[in-house]
Amino acid sequence: MADPVTMRIVIYKNTKKPSDGKSILISPNWSKAQVLKLCSENLGVKAKKIFNESGHEINSFTKITEGSNLYASQGENFQVIGFSPRPSKNYVLCVLGSAAVGKSAIIQRYVQNKFVRDYDPTIEDYYKKIAIIDGETVPLSIFDTAGMEDYYPLIDEWIDKKDGFILVYSMDIKDSLQKLNIFIDKIKHRYSGHGKSDPVVVIVGNKIDIPNREITTEEGRRFADNCNRKHFEVSAATGAGVDDVFNSIVRELKTRREEKPVNSSTSWWSSCNLL
């Protein structure tokens, strides 16, 4: 019988700059051998050791918390660049949008500086990047999601415990901008009035490199202004504007940490009117 107590963690290969993370479910009661086997299957390596973000080898999972980032080693010591006994705040971001708007392409351009031209539908994946923003090392976990409507029942799970959201539409898919209302509404109900800190939410138009647009810059700006959110236009193909999106989110999150919490009545949700 399956263990009813499970938690979701994200596992990465133990490399200097880990990128493609895999989201898995484990039980804190599992043995190390059970977790190593699951890591090996998901990462395609022969995992022999597991490290936490502080570089300590893990032999028991009873103290691991939901959403933890772990690193699977094939026997080598901890390799992740930026290791510190007191790691910087790890921000968890989520990228949402309808199918074929280029969510995965934007993430891979940012994380690996490469463009994946062929559209390969994603269900869910985590990516890891150690970013240098304003001279500071910032660990980022970026959650990629499915755009197919069949997976929309998973939205509530996707948006839980995230620091920021990147809502993506494509300039060559006319209804992809209006479909962002689905995600905005879900985020609004998840975070508004529950004593939770508002996540940073930005609106991003992809494919500025294409010659014929179905959605104009003005339409995108008007949509973002309606929710009092920042608007960006990017190209996953060329990389234009991609870094600006992530840098802006991290800067706003850092600013919020340094300031006193705002009163809930000033939450941006109160001025967000769905179109």
From TrEMBL:
InterPro entries: Doublecortin_dom_sf, KHA_dom, P-loop_NTPase, Small_GTP-bd, Small_GTPase, Small_GTPase_Ras-type
GO molecular function: GTP binding; GTPase activity
Organism of provenance: Stentor coeruleus
Keyword Magnesium: no
Domain of life assignment: Eukaryota
Stated name of the protein: KHA domain-containing protein
A GO cellular component annotation in the UniProt record: membrane
Keywords: GTP-binding, Nucleotide-binding
GO BP, one annotated term: intracellular signal transduction
Boundaries of every KHA domain copy: 8-90
Signal sequence, start to end: none
